[in-house]
Amino acid sequence: MGVLYLVRHGQAPMHAYSSEPAAPDAPGLTDLGFAQARHTGLELARQVPEFTAAVSGDLPRQRATLDGVLAAFGEVHPAGLPASAVDPGWDEYVIPALPGGPSPDLYDTPAGYQQVLDAALLRWTAGAADSVESYAEYVARTGAAADRAVELAGSGQTVLVVSSAGTITALVARLWGVPAESWPALARAMVNASITKLIVGRRGITVVSTNEHGHLAATDVGLATFR
């Protein structure tokens, strides 16, 4: 039996979600995002003594989170640090074209933006060609990345993967049989730097827990965010 720990990236600056390329020296995370990654690394160190492999997607927010998690984990278990690798298959989806197009005040109200995004995702999961890859292509890409991680998580192996809310919950949704049109509801509830634990065995993948964030939401920590 092997174990996969899937960690959502920490809070990222707004440029991370823009269609415009970020400056080369732009940080992958906000200051809060770096703090979230550190706390998650310490929490994982409390749960396991070592990782046999560590992978992230290729997005700056994902790579920065993996670095932060491993740095904190290594403070507790320096002998338990693996070499890290990048697998672009774990990248998040590219946001589909938003109904009505972007507007200057689109991001002013998170609830309003979420409503517009949900409408775009519903069209996309229904087959609209509103992104650089179709929803079917996204599922195939991320599913192949999950298969590669499962291969790393052989008997007695413990693997760390850092990805994004959409990609992590898309995998969970498929394992649970959640319809594609309902999957975004899972992604909306995922906390930055939260932990999802999967067991890999002879019968496939079993979801043990999702979106664990008590280490971030504790009153003496107060680091839990959704965006």
UniProtKB/TrEMBL annotation:
Superkingdom in the source lineage: Bacteria
SMART domains reported for this sequence: PGAM (SM00855)
Taxon lineage: Bacteria, Bacillati, Actinomycetota, Actinomycetes, Mycobacteriales
SUPFAM superfamilies documented for this protein: Phosphoglycerate mutase-like
Gene3D superfamilies to which the protein is assigned, alphabetical: Phosphoglycerate mutase-like
Protein name per UniProt: Histidine phosphatase family protein
Record-linked CDD domains: HP_PGM_like
InterPro entries: His_Pase_superF_clade-1, His_PPase_superfam, Mito_Ser/Thr_phosphatase
